[in-house]
Amino acid sequence: MWSMGCVLFEMVVGQLLFDCDLHRTVEHPLVHFIMMNSMVGPVPRAPYEGNLRPHVINMFGEDGNIRMPPGTMAGSAFVAIALLNNLKFDDANDFSELMHKFLKYDMKERVTAEEALTDKFLLPNGGRILSGQEMVRQNRSQESSNSPSSGWNLHAGSSIAEEEPSTSYAGEQQKPEDGPSHSGQDF
Predict the structure, then answer these.
(1) Residue spans with biased composition (Low complexity) (predicted)?
(2) Taking the CA of residue 161 as centre, how many other CA atoms within 13 Å lie in the half-sphere pointing to its CB?
């Protein structure tokens, strides 16, 4: 379920939650723990007691949590990240709550698949019943955001945020109603 939380984060935000490939150094375990600490909260030793490598055991303090460098903040930035990615405030809170259900250090405390599927963040409209006017407004908003002129509308800084959907296939211009065509090449 931890992995499902990471996948959900990537789907909503468009980036990896814990991009460990950026830090393949001797300090990798500490950097990974710092990432987890900043997003989920203090990393406790207890759930991993029997599986820790000797060099990692020394990273834990007497309080049972990973020793963090001075100034390292613990907590969650899920609401802020969701708001920066254009989620409405209620949806951002729902997203944060679900992420915290997935990302429990003790796997016995994590949300089950069945529970996750009934979470309000995954339900249409957050499980809220919309009035007729709200549904019309939402449909109009979706129609305008799906227009060809809007691009992909991903988060700022994305290399594909400015790309327009392609109108060619195998080097040949296509009309939108034609869909992809075979260019004579065998695949």
Answers:
(1) 138-150
(2) 10
Query: What sign does the dihedral 8-10-13-16 (CA atoms) show?
Result: positive
Task: Record the tokens describing residue 55, joined without a space.
Answer: 């060099």
CA nearest neighbour of 99 among 76, 133, 126, 69: 76
Amino acid at 170: A
Is 0.70 topped by the overall pTM?
Answer: no
* Domain at 105, CATH number: 1.10.510.10
Helix axes 2-13, 89-102, angle to 10 degrees: 150
| Residues 51-106: tens digit of each pLDDT | 777 777 777 777 777 776 666 555 667 888 888 888 888 888 898 889 989 988 88
| Residue 98 lies in domain | 2-117
